[in-house]
Design a protein that fits this description.
The structure holds two protein chains of two kinds. By secondary structure, chain A is of the alpha+beta class. Chain A is built from twelve helices and 22 strands. In chain A, the strands form five sheets. A ten-stranded mixed sheet of chain A has the order 5-4-6-7-1-8-14-13-11-12, with helices on both faces. Chain A has a five-stranded antiparallel sheet with strand order 20-19-18-21-22. Chain A has a three-stranded antiparallel sheet with strand order 16-15-17. In chain A, helix 2 packs across helix 3 and helix 6 packs across helix 7. By secondary structure, chain B is an alpha/beta fold. The chains are: A alpha+beta, B alpha/beta. Chains A and B meet through helix 11, strand 16, strand 18, strand 19 and strand 20 of A and helix 4 and helix 5 of B.
Chain lengths: 471, 397
């Protein structure tokens, strides 16, 4: 039996109230919130965070992984190997991008479900935005989602795969050239009708593939960039007696390549055992996937919990600055130089995997990894010490208004890890006034900055889930 | 094996120091030519008399040619050294050892930094290719980590600590106001400093060293030759140096309320000089007050105050110009300014003036008859620093 072994959704900490947009730009008062990737997050970092959730505690290791987004850091360079490194996947795990088009995420899921490989990771993430006042800015959302697909021999299934259907017919609805901020759209009515037909075809095909009648599917998530088309098909399914779950348009927004995985994860997390659930994805074609939940629960930070957390006090000005729509004056300090490719590769496990070293004799932890121990001085007597999932405590901290940062000030703390090890490191997803000595923090994979077009990734610490009210 | 020092083996016979400030009209060459000229005149010797040179500069030039070319030295060895912000002391240390070894009769240590040509405020390190995981904090922020840790450990109210730090800055401004070579010559009262906006932790710009261009130099000869050149030489009593291994950044036991490297360097220096009670035996000390919390912690690391008590001693005025142990009587890095490679030699220059009774009357110390002065010069950050301690005396013992 094939199915879903692990699933993880990731919602960034920051939320923008849509009323904050209309308060500045005018127009009808916006309703609800959208999620916002922080200045140090991108599609890849959010896919990594979601993947960490999906892989946490799993015995299964994927033999290949896909990364899908419409907002990649690179055009020429493949991004997936960065996630591969951050997740510390073995070298024989193939990693490639499924994209950059919006349908890549659904196709990666489809190929994973139909693959003969024991386990395949489908990691997705997207940063959705547009010019100030655009529908994409208002209705988009930023998120990551990851699904570990595989055989039940590789790991216990949280949902069994029952069948899928797909429909493709070329038509032009939405497009965005490389480097462009704005996504253009054709007249709405045209796409609405094309999508309706495609979704219907894929739905019938999936039911047939699963050997189910329409009334057997109990709960469905419908996702797509064309809100009216998605709403139309949702209405049709609802009228036929199927429960269509909230698209999270009012709280997250449409999170592009991540939205299918995010809603499917949410759907499984919120369904009782034995529920037949389906994902309908309408993006440059239509794809339908049908599963039955098993009731196997896996430790993760659920989408519902993340929806309840976060900080929605982000100002619209800061949102615009973070997305580069509003150029801001940086501190008058030299911009950081680009990283060295060879230096980064030599330190792959540290930079991407957050693996330190542990002295076998004294047990002393070294972050970054060292060859000579600071306790006892033994040389090359170290074992790797993966630290990404270890919590830490703030020993002392500061707020630096002078240092160069894409979003000053820099909040920085000396963090002592549970069980040993220390790293002075930048904090993120935090207000300076929230930080105190003794605060619990956890590590998160972030994009530190960009220089010469090179996206520089490393880890930061953020307040541990549950260490602050509401999150 | 051991650290034995070169107590009373070498002496300083001449010194010079430029003004420290934004010297838009002077380049690195000008600064060195001026400082060396004053130094040679002070000793009454010519540049041809110098057998070997050491040049300390953090990033204003590379190699000995940086000094040899502008001074047009003829066939002399010039060694450029760098050791973070302790670069000037490192040049001096090497010159002293070279003379003590017998290799040369007369050596000159020169420190220089031209920091104001970068186009940015503050000090900016030369970028070395890296893996992209390094910290990007300013030095002010790295040292500001000390303040909350100190307050937490010793139960000092943060508002109280803020006033103590301001008092340190205010003291150094008071001293610097009496120093024509200093960058900042305006007295600042404690309230005004407390009211400045914070830029790094609880620190404002008035808790930070001045950033200045400048140069200073010293001439070293064997002790037995010293009186040929001056009737008031300054003798080397101790030179110590510790390069930290960075374990403070790795070790959760390091609590950011002290600097091991400084404590170790001081211990070695006191042993070399035979000092057992520095607070009572020293006439004065020039310490590396790059930021106000640094000076606070140094009072304990150097043994001037008991652990956890420096903040009270600062408030009691122990380290004021007229106090029991005057600290940074020339204004320190705070007020005199900090041209990186020159600072270590600038510290010695103040000891030179005070021990010889040549400091201007309005900042002359009353404790000069103790005959011993200390210079402390560090570089790097809490948890990962280098530290120099030198002890200097007006008499052979």
């Amino acid at each position: 039996m094939r199915g879903i072994i692990g699933a993880g959704g990731y919602l960034p900490h920051w939320r923008l109230q849509r009323s904050a947009v209309s308060a500045v730009l005018g127009g009808a008062p916006g309703k609800g919130t959208r999620t916002v990737a922080a200045y140090d997050e991108d599609a890849l970092t959010m896919a990594v965070e979601a993947s960490r959730q999906a892989l946490r505690g799993q015995e299964a290791t994927p033999t290949s992984m896909w990364f899908a987004t419409t907002s990649p850091a690179y055009m020429e360079k493949t991004s997936a190997p960065i996630a591969h490194a951050a997740l510390r996947l073995p070298a024989d795990v193939a990693a490639a991008d499924a994209g950059p088009g919006l349908r890549g995420a659904a196709m990666a899921l489809r190929s994973a479900l139909k693959s003969t490989e024991s386990a395949v990771l489908v990691a997705t993430g997207d940063v959705r935005t547009g010019p100030a006042g655009s529908p994409d800015e208002r209705d988009g959302g930023d998120a990551g989602a990851a699904l570990l697909i595989g055989d039940d021999t590789a790991g216990s299934l949280i949902a069994e795969y029952l069948g899928s259907g797909s429909a493709t017919r070329e038509f032009l609805d939405r497009w965005r050239a490389p480097g462009e901020l704005r996504t253009h759209g054709w007249e709405e009515r045209f796409g609405e009708q094309r999508y309706a037909a495609l979704a219907e075809a894929a739905w019938s095909s999936a039911l047939s593939d699963a050997g189910l009648g329409a009334d057997s599917v109990q709960r469905v998530a419908v996702v797509g960039p064309h809100a009216r088309a998605a709403a139309g098909f949702s209405k049709k399914l609802g009228a036929a007696g199927t429960e269509v779950i909230d698209s999270l348009a009012g709280s997250v927004g449409f999170s592009g390549a991540a939205h299918g995985g995010l809603l499917l994860t949410h759907l499984m997390e919120s369904s009782s055992a034995g529920t037949v659930v389906a994902l309908v994805s309408m993006a440059d074609g239509a794809d339908v996937f049908i599963f039955r939940t098993t009731g196997v629960a896996k430790a993760s930070y659920t989408v519902a919990e993340q929806l309840a957390g976060g900080d929605d006090s982000l100002t619209y000005a800061k949102y615009l600055a973070w997305r580069g729509v509003l150029p801001m004056q940086p501190p008058n300090r030299p911009e950081p130089a680009r990283m060295s490719a060879s230096a980064a590769e030599r330190r792959l496990d540290w930079k991407y995997g957050f693996v330190g070293s542990k002295d076998r004799e004294s047990g002393a932890l070294h972050l970054p990894p060292a060859r000579v121990s600071f306790v006892g001085g033994a040389t090359d007597e170290m074992d790797p010490a993966p630290m990404a999932d270890i919590a830490a405590t703030v020993a002392t901290f500061t707020v630096d208004s002078l240092a160069y940062s894409p979003s000053p000030p820099v909040v920085f703390a000396v963090c002592d890890f549970d069980g040993g090890g220390r790293l002075p490191v930048e904090l993120t997803d935090v207000r300076a006034a929230e930080v105190s000595i003794g605060m619990k923090v956890e590590m998160t994979f972030r994009r530190i900055g960009t220089a010469d077009g090179i996206a520089n990734y490393f880890w930061k610490a953020r307040p541990a889930q549950g260490s602050r009210g509401g999150a | 094996m051991g650290s034995h020092g070169i107590k009373d083996q070498v002496a300083i016979i001449g010194m010079g120091c430029t003004q420290f400030r934004e010297q838009w009209d002077k380049g690195t060459d000008d600064l060195m030519i001026d400082a060396v000229g004053d130094t040679l005149a002070s000793a009454g010797v010519a540049k041809e008399d110098i057998d070997a040179w050491w040049l300390g500069t953090a990033q204003s030039g590379m190699s000995g040619v940086t000094l040899a070319a502008p001074l047009k030295l003829q066939g002399k060895p010039v060694t450029r050294v760098e050791n973070y912000c302790a670069t000037g002391s490192e040049a001096l240390r090497q010159a002293c050892y070279a003379v003590a070894s017998g290799a040369y009769d007369m050596a000159c240590a020169v420190g220089v930094e031209k920091v104001k040509d970068s186009g940015f405020q503050g000090l900016n390190a030369f970028p070395i290719p890296h893996d992209g995981t390094q910290r990007s904090l300013t030095a002010a922020a790295m040292f500001s980590l000390v303040a909350p840790a100190y307050a937490e450990r010793y139960g000092v109210d943060p508002t109280e600590l803020r006033r103590v730090l301001a008092r340190i800055a205010s003291k150094n401004h008071y001293n610097g106001a009496r120093n024509p070579r200093a960058q900042f010559r305006r007295e600042m009262d404690v309230d005004a400093i407390c009211n400045m906006p914070a830029v790094a932790g609880m620190l404002s710009v008035f808790d930070c060293a001045g950033v200045a261009d400048g140069s200073a130099a010293a001439i070293v000869v064997r002790a037995e030759d010293a009186y040929k050149y001056t009737d008031k030489p300054i003798f080397v009593k101790a030179l110590s140096f510790v390069a930290g291994n960075g374990s403070g950044l790795l070790d959760p036991d390091f609590d950011y309320t002290h600097f091991d490297e400084c404590e170790m360097a001081a211990k070695d220096a006191y042993s070399q000089a035979g000092i057992t009670n520095p607070r009572k035996e020293l006439a004065m000390a020039e310490v590396h007050d790059c930021f106000t919390p640094t000076e606070l912690v140094l009072m304990e690391d150097l043994g001037f105050s008991e652990r956890g008590e420096a903040w009270q001693d600062c408030e009691a005025g122990v380290f004021d110009l007229g106090g029991d142990l005057p600290i940074n009587t020339d204004g320190g890095l705070k007020s005199f300014g900090h041209p990186v490679g020159a600072s270590g030699l600038r510290m010695l220059f103040e000891c030179w003036l005070q021990l010889r009774g040549e400091a201007p009357e309005d900042r002359r110390i009353a404790t000069a008859d103790r005959g011993l002065a200390l210079t402390h010069n560090l570089g790097g950050y809490p948890g990962e620093m280098v530290s120099f301690v030198g002890i200097w005396g007006s008499e052979l013992s």
